[in-house]
Every structure is written in structure tokens, then in C-alpha cells.
Description:
The protein is of the alpha+beta class and 177 residues long. It folds into two domains: 2-103, no CATH class; 109-175, Orthogonal Bundle (Arc Repressor Mutant, subunit A), CATH 1.10.10.10. 41% of the residues lie in helices and 16% in strands. It is built from seven helices and seven strands. The protein has helices spanning 33-40, 45-54, 67-78, 97-107, 116-124, 132-139, 143-157; strands at residues 2-5, 11-14, 28-30, 87-90, 130-131, 162-167, 170-175. It has a four-stranded antiparallel beta sheet, covered by helices on one side. A three-stranded antiparallel beta sheet has the order 5-7-6. A hairpin with a 2-residue loop joins strand 6 (162-167) and strand 7 (170-175). The longest helix is centred in the last third of the chain and has 15 residues, at 143-157.
Amino acid sequence: MTFTIDLENNITVLASSQHIEEHQEGTETFSTPHELAALAAKWPGSRLVEIWNGLPGVEPVERFTSRQVAATRIWKTIQNLQPTAGAQRRQVAPNKASAKHKASRRARSTGRENTKTAKVIALLQQPEGATLRAIMRATGWQTHSVRGFVSGHLKKKLGLKVRSSQRDGERVYSIKH
């Protein structure tokens, strides 16, 4: 299979190379992961993120650790695209959708029930909340890990309103209702 990508990040899957001549100026073609990596080396990192976030069924990202990682992940994902009569086109979502992705990420549930995240949230939803020590016992984490989890995962990633207070000299966390 041969793939083409145009200036608007539309990826077209071709069953054969005979259709390539029909494409516009600025369209680049690739047939191997190495060819995609060579093209990606010339692109800004933001383009790789836009391409990835526009692929169907992927978890959106804000950046990649390297161009090689981006090219490899994109290559693996586009292998699932199938050519149809002529070619199949896939539009990349515009940049404005990134705010939509963040909102949907915050709105989603915690997923599985028997995870440490679920255990911590259950503890924090109790009327009296949970002490730092209780969370440490439930998870096996150290104090700095609990604080980082509350700040980074619960507050920032999941968008929960976590309240922190002192009660009898102990740190207590609770989720605002």
C-alpha cells in the first residue's frame, strides 16, 4: 500500500501507485515506516501531533518524546486504514477541537473499579474525607506520591474539585460535591 499526505494532513490510502499522479502539489507519498520517518524529520513537531490527534480511535496527545516515536505510532495506526474505490480520505480535526478533547477527557469516568484511582476517589467521597495516612495505607504510596496524585491526576487530569484541610494536626483530603 502507498500513502499520501497533503498540506492539510489528509492521509489517503492507495491500493497501488497508479493513483499518485492525480494528487495536488504539496502532496507527499510514503510506503514504508522509514519513508514516513524521513518525511517527519522535515515537519514541525506540531504537525505530527495534529496528524496523530486526527487519526480515528487514538488517545489525543499534546506532544511526542521524539519524531521517531511519532512516526512509528502514526505508521502503526494508519495500517488499519483501508483503501476503497480509488482511495479513502481521512480529515484531521482542526486545532479548535483540542479544547473539546480536554473537556471530554475531564468528563470521562475513572473507568475500572478496582484501581488505586478508584480506591482513592472512594475514600475522598466519604463525608469526612480521608487523611493522608489513610490514602497512603490504601495505595502503598509515600506522602509525596499521594500529594502529586491528588494535584496532577485528580485535580488537573480528571478535573475533580479536591479540598485539602488540616484536622487534628493531620492533612485531610475530600472531594467537593
